[in-house]
From TrEMBL:
Organism name: Gymnopilus junonius (Spectacular rustgill mushroom)
Protein name (record): Cytochrome P450
Family recorded in the similarity comment: Belongs to the cytochrome P450 family.
Cofactor entry: heme
Keyword field: Heme, Iron, Metal-binding, Oxidoreductase
Length: 491
């Protein structure tokens, strides 16, 4: 080895040795509070809120063998928006059990954010014109299950919602206009499998909850190496073929110009090569999960809430009648982009559901350096999250009735379901607030208005059950929805 190389090797070795042996200075870290599994998984809101009240604005709590720092509303803004101390991308990767994302040369989460911000939001109206008929067809088919019924009949909502979401997202993402049953099933399965890796159902399984580290290792290998590539192969192959044809012909006309794969190819600046194609396929996998799973869960939440708060239905139908426009081709009443924008009462109801459904820990960040916070120091590499209920239901933010569900609370204000602030962040906050929220709210409105234009909705027993109180964000409630056809459909 020549002297220069020897010096370089020795220097690197010394730096590595120093960084491992360097005495770690004592940090003034927040108190670590023990919360029992029962408290965390059965009544997390009360447990976290009481601990914060007793021990101050920031505490450490072990959950599923992992230390998480929990803050109250006074520090929420700082934690969620101070990118120089708390990283959204790293926090999301860690909480989704995918720290490997942080080792990639490009930021997957940053690229997904850009993809939706640039590829969907600016052309939201056009996208909704394309996707709308798919949502409506699935909801009409579901409503038709109650045709001729004289008493409320049970229907299976979640399945239809997932199919509608999967089919429309296949059109949005890969430009598949006629997705067959297998392709739709593959998209649903991919979203579900990624949700499992991401730990979305981890709180409700005995093994995953009791042996979280072993569970994480096992599930990661099984799902990431075998199951997800297998279920994703049909979608991935379709994208691969499109990209291969582009490489061979130098052209992209065979790819739907409004789909996200087309956007990615254009954004790449040249026809993607092999590694760029793999990256594009990874992004389509990520966006399939991000766009299908959470929106489907929220639609179920909103419809179940409506079914137990039936007093809002007459007003919502009145609103629907007033916002319908006339389809220029058929002359029939139609729901357009403008109709959805004008559905103020429904928007307010959705916002109230998102505010009040009891989210506790929902949006995570990871400290990128030893970060001063609330009189303590959060050590570098720590997960940190504010408790959502303390912001969302705080009387200081929303008045004395802050913890009361008032469906029309936001009508006539500038606060829409998608407009996030320090006191309302179901879509996150700051630079990385969910880029898909405008699309998501429009989809939710479209599905709900379509349904209530044809059927009356009820919950069996007048109630639903929360399956996972610690994850009301992504796990929908359970209950039996019932439909009764309207005498005079509005659509
Ligand atoms: C009601 C449905 C949805 C909810 C409640 C939701 C919520 C969230 C939340 C809380 C975050 C993290 C934000 C943060 O860290 O500050 C997020 C990130 C993200 N969401 Fe959504 N989301 C929904 C629908 C969608 C849809 C339909 C899309 C795509 C079309 C989407 C795409 C993304 C992406 C790409 C990210 C990661 C990048 C980023 O953080 O900017 N989401 N979402």
């Amino acid at each position: 080895m020549d002297p220069t190389t020897t010096c370089a090797v020795i220097s690197i070795a010394l730096i590595v040795l120093y960084s491992f042996t360097r005495p770690r200075k004592e940090l003034n870290t927040p108190p670590i509070i023990h919360l029992s599994d029962e408290a965390l998984f059965q009544y997390p809101r009360q447990a976290y809120e009481a601990a914060l009240q007793q021990h101050g604005s920031v505490i450490g709590v072990y959950r599923k063998n992992r230390l998480e720092y929990i803050v109250d509303e006074s520090l929420a803004l700082q934690v969620l928006t101070n990118d120089s101390l708390f990283s959204a991308e790293r926090g999301t990767a860690a909480i989704l059990n995918m720290p490997i994302l942080n080792a990639l040369p490009y930021s997957l989460i940053g690229s997904l954010d850009k993809l939706v911000t640039k590829g969907v939001t600016p052309i939201l109206e056009r996208q909704l014109q394309r996707l709308g008929p798919i949502f409506q067809r699935h909801m009409f088919e579901l409503a038709a299950k109650a045709d001729d019924a004289k008493a409320p009949v049970p229907v299976e909502l979640a399945h239809s919602v997932h199919e509608a979401m999967a089919q429309s997202m296949l059109l949005l993402i890969i430009g598949e206009k006629e997705a067959d049953h297998d392709l739709i099933a593959a998209a649903i399965k991919v979203a579900f499998d990624v949700a499992i890796v991401a730990g979305i159902y981890q709180n409700i399984g005995y093994w995953s909850r009791t042996f979280p580290s072993t569970w994480r290792a096992f599930i990661w290998i099984r799902l990431m190496i075998f199951t997800i590539p297998w279920t994703f192969r049909r979608i991935g192959w379709r994208v691969w073929k499109d990209l291969k044809q582009a490489r061979e012909t130098g052209k992209t006309d065979h790819i739907d110009p409004d789909c996200l794969v087309h956007y990615l190819v254009k954004d790449n600046g040249r026809i993607p090569g092999f590694t760029e194609s793999i990256w594009i396929i990874s992004l389509t996998l990520g966006i399939t999960f991000a766009s299908i799973h959470q929106t489907s869960a929220v639609i179920v939440w909103v419809i179940y809430e409506l079914a137990v708060r039936r007093e809002y239905l007459p007003e919502l139908r009145k609103e629907l009648s007033s916002i319908l426009e006339t389809d220029p081709d058929t002359g029939k009443p139609a729901l357009t982009f403008a109709s959805l924008r004008n559905a103020e009462l429904l928007d307010s109801f959705i916002r109230e559901v998102l505010r009040m459904k009891g989210d506790t820990i929902a949006v995570f960040r990871l400290s990128t350096k030893d970060a001063p916070l609330g009189g303590y120091v959060i050590p570098k590499g720590s997960l940190i999250t504010p408790i959502a209920t303390l912001s969302h239901e705080n009387p200081k933010n929303w008045g004395e009735d802050a913890n009361k569900f008032i469906g029309d609370r936001w009508v006539g204000t500038d606060k829409t379901a998608a407009s996030v602030s320090t006191s309302y962040w179901p879509f996150g906050l700051g630079r990385f607030a969910c880029p898909g929220r405008y699309l998501a709210v429009a989809e939710i409105k479209l599905m709900i208005l379509t349904l209530i234009s044809r059927v009356d909705i009820f919950m069996e027993g007048g109630k639903y059950e929360i399956i996972d109180p610690l994850n009301t964000v992504a796990v929908p409630p359970r209950g039996q929805l019932l439909f009764l056809p309207l005498e005079k459909p509005l659509l």
